[in-house]
Amino acid sequence: MIQRLALRGKTYDIHIREGLLDDCGGLIREYLGAYCASEVVLITESNVRRRYAARMGDALARARIAFWPFVLRPGERSKSSASLARLYDAFAARRLRRDGLILAFGGGVVGDLAGFAAATWMRGVRFVQIPTTLLAQVDASIGGKTAVNTRAGKNLVGAFHQPSLVLSDPALLADLPAREFRCGMAEAVKYGAVRSKRLFERLRTAPDRAALCDIIGECCAIKAGIVERDVFDTGERMILNFGHSFGHAIETLGEFRRYKHGEAVAMGMVSAAETGERLGLTARGSADALRAVLAAQGLETDCPYTPAELLPQMETDKKNSGGTLRLVLLAAPGEAFVHTLDRAALRKAMGGI
Ligand SMILES: NC(=O)c1ccc[n+]([C@@H]2O[C@H](COP(=O)([O-])OP(=O)(O)OC[C@H]3O[C@@H](n4cnc5c(N)ncnc54)[C@H](O)[C@@H]3O)[C@@H](O)[C@H]2O)c1
Ligand SMILES: [Zn+2]
């Protein structure tokens, strides 16, 4: 399946197919066409390298693409300015020029870091996303947001830099830890909740392998459509933050150890739906429907924190300004909108504290 993301001045394809890993070289060669990258760097991390680097190497060799690898430690800590500095040093040593190509082969950590390096090296070189986690296949690899973490916080330094091509092979998910898989499913449920009743209903059961490929495609199509209309996240794209204001508060209260992002977003979506129902803006039963869908994907739905704990965290969210908060709410599953309210109103809607 191929989804196309058409932005003003730049169009790129998102390929999704089982077994695609072995054809990566050919697809990259096809994309490069007459343009010949002077140097190709494959950025990955050791968990992915151990499983898939040999096949990736063969695929690139078959397409006569010479590359040099750069291997990170797995995990969020690699999405740092220290890794970035090491990458820049390696680019310099290898004389990576503006016509070079960066391949980001890994989950969202590799994609965000490699993407930011691509955005900034020589003021921008091309890069290809080859996502290996469900979260990266449905979310992080598309839309052009790149970032590194700094001491001040997550994703505070970043750039918009669209990939030239996205190559997703759902077969690579076979070995993904179950918890990571569930986190990706939480984001898939989010796409259904904000934009597609059909996808939402489909997720009432856990997908088998064949359905998974299709579901990834649907998520990409929804994200691509929204990004096309709001590349720089100044309007409609905000609905992709459904469940995230609550989710970020839950992640923070758990000190980023207790819950993974997707787990926190799952609970956050239920909290947002409950809040919307109390405000009379969300159709009754929406929170229960979300609970059922998320439970079918093995996700917990009960937020362990009280409104009194959550609110202060939500008020410091970087997306808020002045005394008001902007929350993404559901009219009903499949239909989201942005609602602005003041703290007192939110406090009341969250349980009247
Ligand atoms: N740019 C965006 O739009 C965007 C959107 C959402 C999230 N993100 C970012 O993405 C990051 C999280 O991404 P993630 O959840 O993919 O995390 P990750 O990249 O850390 O991968 C999760 C774990 O899975 C392992 N792994 C990766 N591929 C595997 C495979 N095929 N088989 C077995 N194990 C594998 C990794 O080694 C790691 O331990 C965060 O930094 C977040 O900020 C970015
Ligand atoms: Zn998210």
Provide a brief overview of the structure.
The chain is an alpha/beta fold.
Question: Mind explaining what this structure looks like?
Answer:
With 353 residues, the chain is α/β, with parallel strands linked by helices. It folds into two domains: 2-175, 3-Layer(aba) Sandwich (Rossmann fold), CATH 3.40.50; 179-349, Dehydroquinate synthase-like - alpha domain (Dehydroquinate synthase-like, alpha domain, Up-down Bundle), CATH 1.20.1090. Helix content is 45%, strand content 20%. The strands form three sheets. A seven-stranded mixed beta sheet has the order 1-2-9-6-5-3-4, with helices on both faces. It has a two-stranded antiparallel ribbon with strand order 7-8. Helix 1 crosses helix 2 (46-62) and helix 9 crosses helix 12 (307-315). Bound molecules: nicotinamide-adenine-dinucleotide and zinc ion. Residues 45, 47-48, 51, 74-76, 79, 106-110, 112, 132-133, 135-136, 139-140, 143, 145, 155, 172, 175-176, 180, 183 line the site of nicotinamide-adenine-dinucleotide.
Structural key phrases:
Dehydroquinate synthase-like, alpha domain; binds nicotinamide-adenine-dinucleotide; 11 strands; 13 helices; 353 residues; alpha/beta; 2 domains; single chain; 45% helix; two-stranded antiparallel ribbon; Rossmann fold; binds zinc ion
Which percent band covers the strand fraction? 15-25%
Contiguous uncertain segments of 5+ residues? none
- The CATH topology of the largest domain, please? Rossmann fold
- Which kinds of small molecule does this entry bind, naming each only once? nicotinamide-adenine-dinucleotide, zinc ion
Estimated radius of gyration:
20 Å
Shape: globular
**What is the CATH architecture assignment of the largest domain?**
3-Layer(aba) Sandwich
Helix count, per DSSP? 13
Helix content: 40-55%
CATH class of the largest domain: Alpha Beta
What is the topology, as strand order, of the major beta sheet? 1-2-9-6-5-3-4
Mean pLDDT: 93
